[in-house]
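Recap quiz, item 2
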Amino acid sequence: MPAPASSPIDQLLATPLFADVDKKQLDGVRKEAAITDGTFEWAPGAARRAGFVRFLDAEPGTPIVAQGDLTTELFVVLAGNVEAVQARPRHGACVPAALQAGDWFGEVSAHSHHPSLATFRATTPTRLAALEQRLFSKLYAEDEEFRQRIDARYLDQLGLHLRASSLCRDLDDAAIATLQQGATLLTADEGDVVAKAGEPADAVFLVRAGAIAAAAGDGPEARVLAFYKGNATFGEHAVATGDAAWPATYRALTRSALVRIPRTQWQQLAAPAQQGLVRAANRLLGRDDVDAARQAAAPDLGSRSLLDELHVMVEHESVKGGRALVIDRTKCVRCNQCVESCVAVHDDHVPRLSKVGTPVATDEVLVTACYHCEVPQCMLSCDYAAIRRDPQGRIRFEYDNCVGCAGCIDGCPYGVIRLVEPAPPPPPQPSFLASLPLVGRFFGGAPAPAAAAAAPAAAGEKPRTAGAGGKLTAVAGKTIKCDLCAGLPFEACVYNCPTTAITRRQPQSLFGSGGAPR
Amino acid sequence: MNLGLYRTRFALAALAVVAALLGWSLSSGKPFGSRDPGNVAFLLTSGWLAVAAYVALAAYAARRAAHRLRLSPEFAWKAKLPDLERAQSALTELQNRIVRRELGGTAAVRREADRILRQFGVHRVLAVAIEPDPAAAGLLRLATTPRQPIGRLAAWLQVHVWLGIAAALLVWWHGGLRSGSTMGLLLNGLSLAVIGTGLLGAALWTFGPTWLTRQERELSVEKVHALEQHFRRKVAAAAAALREADEAAAAALRRDLATLTGQQELVQREARRLWLWREALRLWRLVHVPCSTLLLALVGIHILAVWYY
């Protein structure tokens, strides 16, 4: 229980999470909080932005984060109590954790961009601090004390994550506790081999953050068979089938964090739990790497083209997207209605849609629109808190904070963000009478000589905005990308295509399974 | 081949009306367009139905234009982003309640989802689909989609195609293709032009995209444009280098420039060819749209004339 402190930021820094953390890092947190509450003193001419720490109050019964919401914040309880309620099909609700002042939650989302694993709601009047993902990542990467505490709490609460995984979602609390006891954390850098084909398979891995590719073969002949990202598990066959060896080589595509649960731990489960687990593992294996690896290893590569296409998808990382925008060129009459509709719905009259994309399948083009990535590099590149993820996982720009520095454009690996000239403020609309020809000037239609003289001088200046960030500097430009026609009851390009050539689809539907277009 | 242009339930309704009128005309034993007093009811019915069809046909063009000009009512229903996000968060929590078995039954879930949408003022923007969850027997799954209140343009086009065909038949049975008067000649002529170009357009939009895609498989128009720009830059740079080069280097630079210019011409020729093929897919509209507009105006005059005289 932290000692009572005077201000919220002192309260935050007095929590056990920040004990012994490097003073430089604490100064950084203090500065972010001061930016948020407006007490930070800016150097003259510096671009302002919103801070990465905010404080919020919650009434009893109020959900702070709902299970399934995509949030990127780490929440620290400053006062009051919070309960975690996790819903599971066939198990109803369970309350796996009760949190009090000094505790924290949301580290899985902040670390891996995974949707919230449970609903966290206040049970008493509660005050919380929310650290944005960027600040969390900095602390996690640079301060050993902070990282160890986050990891230790994650292991303590591993049950929350395990219950959300497909493999363990049907296990009872005792079985989850058994697995939790033997679990260890593992970090793999990009390119590191986590498990090698042919070596003994003695554990199941849960991907906590990052991405792992399973490939058959080596070097240029290697074929990517499966792609595991946040919350996925691999190695189930070690449990389900008793296979002794890894069927493929598992390599980290990016810096990845994994949870390793040894086979011995699975073997300690009671018989009914083991049977349930084997059923779950077999269900997963039905569409998983083992079968694919065996097919690839077989002399007759019947599914070779499918594997090639999967490789394209992994190469372009479109698998990260939810629903991809696809143009069927055998239906597209090249009328350009999609682009014109996109222009019509945006006030700056700049289209977000470019029909140039990645050709996949035979005559379909995967349009390079925003994939709303799981690990959005644009967000990580933004120093001004101008990019955030909404509860549904979409990446949104906060134009009040954007200074047009183009950092996100450099960060985006797919080149879907562009910088455009900021739109000039709209001229005042004359009244109907003032707009009439000849007689209009009697109703104030003619420009005043002074205003007319001032106009050219003003035209040379870059526009300024007065948003929540209260930017002091001139805005260099405005970054744009597909915003899914935010707030409108349609997606303009899909809605206005006369031949249904452009659709939103699950990327895997391009290979003929599931994901009906809409 | 894009047969999606024709797949609509509305086709059945249009064909049913047409079949009913044809049956009526044949059973009366009078030729099409007969002005016999016993045929007045048929003339009026087929005439008004044709007018209604023409208005509906024009609505397709109006919907296209209204969207382009932001005059469509949907633009006024735009929801505020924070409201939209709060509503989606509340729907996620509703899904959690379903999973926790605190709420069940499609009707109850529908009521609660509607209440959430109305509470945040986004009921005109979002629609909630409630389906059985394939991953968990007995549970329901919520999925939010844009409401698309007036329907996709593709659906309007399907209706446009079938109503166009129905309207052409109605005009034929109504007037009997008589060309005794200037008005009759104009109405029938324009009707034929409109349905002819319309059918041509439908055929081009059915088979054209596949054919065009085959032509563009090696090099699409977008890539050709990029190549054109590339060669323009290269030729300009080579020409500038040639202007500043001495006699010794000029000969080699001239050869380079000639090669580049030759390649540029090839790309330009390819660009023209692809552009012409693309244009061919919409040339029919040059006749179809003006003729339709004129036909609508003449139909109005025809109604007034019949009413007056």
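The first strand of chain A starts at residue 53 and ends at 58.
The two ends of chain A are 52 Å apart (CA to CA).
End of item.
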